[in-house]
Write a structure and sequence with these properties.
Elements lengths: L3 H14 L21 E5 L6 H9 L3 H17 L3 E4 L2 E4 L5 E11 L2 E9 L8 E11 L2 E8 L3 E12 L8
Antiparallel strand pairs: 1-2, 1-8, 2-3, 3-4, 4-5, 5-6, 6-7, 7-8
Helix pairs in contact: 2-3
């Protein structure tokens, strides 16, 4: 019985070292309601990852072009099955990622907030708190990881289309 506190403390320390800060809260739930954004979306591949596409178009080295194409295809696959449900964004086929909003401002179809990013929901030690942006224009959603302070991750600049069975809600 006396070992419970030291073991619990050791587990919390290991979780923090692994990037799984227990202070983040539950990475599967969000206190932020997102009814305007909730639904299923499909990636519009040709409009997504524009910086990466520009790098590929400008790359003269054929070996590097192959690598950039593989990264682009991986990004497209990673954004499969994109869903938003009450402040939790999930997507991916082989590896499912999630973003659980912790704080957000929503104005004129744009959400800016901080979310727990869980890079692989089946691996508990890979979470971080990250800024995200969603911009909804009709049935088109722009998703972005990062902001002006942190920089934007070009692998997470996606444009998606809301699936027909999930009409926009106010």
């Amino acid at each position: 019985m006396e070992l419970r506190a030291p073991i619990a403390g050791a587990l919390l320390s290991l979780a923090a070292l692994a990037g799984c800060d227990p202070g983040y809260g539950d990475p599967t739930r969000s206190p932020i309601a997102t009814p305007t954004f909730d639904g299923r979306y499909q990636l519009i591949a040709e409009e997504s990852f524009q910086a990466l596409r520009a790098d590929l178009a400008a790359e003269p080295d054929p070996d590097r072009q192959v690598l950039l194409r593989q990264i682009l295809e991986g990004n497209e696959d990673a954004f499969a099955d994109f869903r938003i449900t009450h402040g939790v964004i999930t997507f991916g086929r082989e590896i499912t990622q999630s973003f659980a909003l912790r704080s957000a401002t929503i104005e004129d179809g744009e959400l800016r907030g901080e979310a727990i990013w869980h890079e692989d929901i089946h691996d508990p030690g890979d979470m971080s708190l990250e800024p995200i942006r969603l911009r909804l224009k009709g049935d088109r959603l722009e998703f972005q990881l990062g902001d002006e302070k942190t920089g934007v991750d070009q692998n997470f600049e996606a444009v998606l289309k809301r699936m027909g069975d999930n009409p926009p809600r106010d």
